[in-house]
Amino acid sequence: MALGLRCFRLVHPAFCNSLAALTRPVSEVMLKTVSGRQNDHGQYLAYPAVPIRHFATKKAKAKGKGQSQTRMNLNTTLVEDIISLEEVDEEMKSVIEALKDNFNKTVNIRTSPGSLDHITVVTADGKLALNQIGQISMKSPQLILVNMASFPECTAAAIKAIRESGMNLNPEVEGTLIRVPIPKVTREHREMLVKLAKQNTNKAKDSLRKVRTNAMNKLKKSKDKTSEDTIRLIEKQISQMADYTVAELDRHLAVKTKELLG
Question: What pLDDT is recorded for position 99?
Answer without folding.
Answer: 95
